[in-house]
Amino acid sequence: MSSEASPQKPYLLRAMHEWMSDNGQTPHIVVDVSLPGVEVPQNNVRDGKIVLNVSYAATQNLGLGNDEITFDARFDGKPRNVRIPSSAVLAIYARESSQGMVFSGEVEPAGDDQLVIEKRNEEPARSNKSHLRIIK
């Protein structure tokens, strides 16, 4: 056994994606596009971030690997290849319930980073402010 464990984030992303899919919800990821290796449609980027629907219905050839997430999808009617290093994923959440995880920096085995799972009320108040928050 290696003395250095692999990063937890890819495993958590796959688990949350599977849980959301199994429960009929639509998984979305929030991506920091400023990091190297991120290949996403730039016209959909807002404030250095992009939110992507990563459901099986919205993607083709979805790969949730240890190093990166890859898939093919249509943006503005045009097919695109998308490539996202796991380290660039800031959060994963279900569109319908807003349940998910927020990653504070890179999730490493050292455990210094925190994950948040937050449940929202059945009828959330409408506001532009995000319901996701980082707890330290």
Explained architecture:
The protein has one helix spanning 9-22; strands at 27-32, 49-53, 60-64, 68-75, 78-85, 89-94, 100-103, 115-116. With 136 residues, the chain is mainly β. The protein has one domain (9-116): SspB-like (SH3 type barrels, Roll). The strands form 2 sheets. The protein has a 5-stranded antiparallel β-sheet, with helices on one face. Strand 3 and strand 4 (68-75) form a beta hairpin. The radius of gyration is 15 Å and the shape is globular. Mean pLDDT is 82; it is low at 106-127.
Protein topology:
Blueprint: H1 9-22, E1 27-32, E2 49-53, E3 60-64, E4 68-75, E5 78-85, E6 89-94, E7 100-103, E8 115-116
Concise overview:
The protein has 136 residues and is mainly β.
Which short descriptors sum up this protein?
single chain, 136 residues, three-stranded antiparallel beta sheet, five-stranded antiparallel beta sheet, mainly beta, SH3 type barrels, 8 strands
